[in-house]
Amino acid sequence: MRRSCMQHNRELYCYLVTKISWKGSYKRLLTVGTMGVTTYNKDTLRVTNQWPYSEIYSVRPDPNIKSSQPQLQRLILTVVDNNRKRHELTFASEYRVEVLTDLLRFRDRFGDRLKQFPVSDHYLLIL
């Protein structure tokens, strides 16, 4: 599903990943672009998902390693939907370090960069 807010996205980095969900595991191409992240079906090259950086809350490594696939290291991409609900998406790749590095190049565009301390009226800017 291609999103109109991503129509001018220029893809800069591309990785073969495995999308892991409760439904199963799917091979995907994950691209990091100028405006956001896109996943494609690796066989048809059809867009399966797109997230502009404003909808990405965080990205982090998952320290758990599956014993059956030790070469595939996981990362967790947290996105926020229109209702401000967070969803964690898990991907596995032998290129986890590179994927994380390329995603974090755009961390200044991630949504929710201002966090309010619950005990204070001051804001902390996450860089």
From TrEMBL:
Residues 14-114 form the DnaJ homologue subfamily C GRV2/DNAJC13 N-terminal domain. GO terms for cellular component: endosome membrane. Transmembrane segments: none annotated. Pfam families: RME-8_N (PF19432). It comes from the Eukaryota. One of its GO terms (biological process) is regulation of early endosome to late endosome transport. This is DnaJ homologue subfamily C GRV2/DNAJC13 N-terminal domain-containing protein. It comes from Fasciola gigantica.
